[in-house]
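OP here, attaching both records as promised.
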Amino acid sequence: MRGRTSLQTRARRVTMILMDVDGVMTDGRITLVGARHEAKSFDARDGVALWIARRLGLMTGVISGRRSTAVVRRARELGMDEIHLGTRDKLAVYESILRRRRLSDPQVCYIGDDLVDIPVLARAGVSVAVADAHPEVIRRARFVTGASGGQGAVREVVDAILKAQGHWNTVLGWFDVSPAARRRGLRRVAR
C-alpha cells in the first residue's frame, strides 16, 4: 500500500475499520437475477482479514448507498459491528457512528472507491482508496492499495493496520503448525 504520509503512526490509533461495499468489498459489478434478486461476489481473503481484525478487538462496518440482502448476509457472517445500507449521506452516518461509539476521526480507517466516499475519506484518520478507485478518490486518499476492489484490497488494508499495531506475530502464531509451535500449544484457530 502506498501513501503520502506514514501509515505506521496513523494506523496505531485505528480502532474501527469502515468501508464502502460495491467497488471495495466487491469488484463493483452488480448481477441482476430476475426481477428482484442480485448477486455479488466477495473475496474470501477479505473475509478472513475482517475476522482476524475482529478477533483482535477492532470494530468493522460498512456504509453503502445500495440496499442488498447479499451484503446484509455477508456483513452478518463477518460479525460486522455497523451495517448501514441505502445511505444517501455517508458523512452523516459516519458522524453518527462516531458519536454513538465515542470515537474520533483518527481512530477510524475508511476504505472507498468512488466520489460519494470523498466526504468520509476527508475525515477518517486513515483514508484509503482501492487501486481501481475513481482518479479523484485516489488523489484525495492518504493511502492507495495495490489490489483492486473485491480482489484483496480490504485484506491489504487490514494486514497493514495489524502490522502497524504490532499484532502480526500474534496472528501468525495462530496459524503456526510447526512442531515447536504445537509443543507450545499455539495452534488456537477458532472455527
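Record two, same layout:
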Amino acid sequence: MTTNNHDLEASQEEPQPFSRQELRGMLGAPLRLVDLVLGERRRFAANVLQEHRLPTLLFVLTIATAAFALPFGAVLGPGRFWRIAVLLLGGLAICVPSLHVFGRYIGARLSWAQTLSIALASAAVTALFSLALAPILGFFRITMSASEAVTPQIMAVTLLVLAFMAGIGQLFRLALGDRTLARRIGPAAIPLIIPWLVLYLIITVRLANVLGIGA
C-alpha cells in the first residue's frame, strides 16, 4: 500500500504536457499564451520531451511570437508594425537549421521539431517582453525628439536588446533548468548554445539593418 501511494504521489507531481485542446484554446486567450511561454515551463518541457502535440505547439508558438511582436513594431511606425515579427521569425528560420545540425553533431538527442520548439519558445519570450515594453517606447517617442542626445530610435534599440536578453535567458532556462530535458540535450549544451547565440545575434543584427529597425 505504501509503495502504491508513493507511485501515485510521484505520478501526480510529474508535469503533464499541454493537450491539443489547451493549446488551441490559448489562441483565443492571450493570458494563457503567457502561461505557455513563461509560467508553465515544466509542462512545456514535457510536451517537448514526449513530442506530444508538437505540430500544434509549434503553430501556437509561431502565432504567439508574431502577435506579441506587432505592438512594438506598430510603435516604431504605422508602416513598420510587421518588422519585429519578421525579425524574430526570420532570424530563427535562418539559424535553427545550424542549431539542430550542430546539436546532433555533439550528441544532442533532439528531433527537428523539438529543437524548433525550444528556439520558438525563446523567440516568443522575446516577443512577449517587446509587448510589455511597447508602452514605454511609445512614451519615449511622444516625449523625446530626434535632436536630443538620446533619441527615440536609440531607446527602441535599447528596449529591443532587453527583450532579446530575456529570450536568451529563457533558452538557457529550458535547455539547462529542466533536468530531464538537459539530459536529452547532453553535457555539451553550453559549448553548443554559446557559439550558436553569437551566430544568431550576428544574423539578427544584420537582418535588423536590412529591415530598417532603429533607423
